[in-house]
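Reopening: structure tokens for the S-adenosylmethionine complex, inputs below.
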Amino acid sequence: MTRTPMIDGFGRHITYVRLSVTDRCDLRCRYCMTEQMRFVPRHEVLRDEEIVALADILIARGVKRIRLTGGEPLVRRGVERLVETLGQRIGRGLDELTMTTNGTQLARHAPALAAAGIRRINVSLDSRDPELFRTITRRGELKQVLKGIEAAALAGLKIKINMVALRGLNEEEIVPMLRWCAAEGHDLTLIETMPLGEVEHQRTDHYLPLMEVRSRLEREFELVLSTARTGGPARYFEVGGLGALLGMITPLTDNFCEGCNRIRITATGTVFGCLGHDRKIELRELLQAGDAAAVNGALDGLLAVKPRAHTFRIDAAAPAVERHMSVTGG
Ligand code: SAM
Ligand code: SF4
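Re-run output (same inputs, fresh job):
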């Protein structure tokens, strides 16, 4: 098996992969999807054995962290079996397997995730107000997600809450969310809305720059820049008095591309070097043919053209790329 490390044209080592296991989702968050989202036909989605073969190729080439995502990863049929198989790679080349989930199915799956070796998960929660939660997700049941979070904590999973900061929607909830997270022992990461795929409204309507949020928070708390890194793009702050860790993902106000260590793989085996660009390779047929050499060759081709940075602008006339976050895997 090829063991050559994956290094892009800017000398960045690729050690982190976001792997989407489905583009489907049981929610329709307004900033992420349209109400009438069309999903890829099931037969185009990579099968478990193809995902595992790909993970093995990537691990051999130095990938240390895999984050399973989607769409909603926990709506993939047989997801527990897949997680268990991938979990067997932890300590054998892979340092960490994690997941980003909307939490709706977590109560059912949390024990299996923990048993498979997952130690921490990100749960998206944009509001703790049942009505606002439903408005943002268009169909979510807050109670179900809170139960999922409880079950995950009980199963011993460390939880980070992901909250997309939305002007006029949840901006007044940021401080209460931070306090709640601190009280529950969770970390909180705030995210700026990114212009990915068309949605019904103008994203500018609800775009809330995190610079602004930071200044507001600093009136109430002492924020001390932390050295904590989790292999992701967030900058972290220790929140004085609360003992909580606050992350900020600011692709629009403070681009984080310099230290990019990742590639993103869709549920159909398309690999993108950057969330905000269209350069891609298709691995599904190569994986079906069991052609690891061709997969490695294609990966090398992608690394050679991995862009230096995305060029997101919230006020641009069209989204930076046509595909939605749920397709690329957030
Ligand atoms: N369904 C899972 C969830 O919601 O956690 C995993 C996939 S979702 C695409 C991953 C993360 O991307 C979520 O935290 C979500 O809030 C975020 N997200 C989706 N669309 C986004 C956008 N346009 N801008 C910023 N964040 C986005
Ligand atoms: Fe689904 Fe996650 Fe997108 Fe919300 S953010 S619609 S939960 S994929």
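Residues 25, 27-29, 32-33, 70-72, 102, 124, 326 surround iron/sulfur cluster (ligand 2) (CB under 6 Å). Residues 150 and 247 are 21 Å apart (CA to CA). Marking as resolved unless the reporter disagrees.
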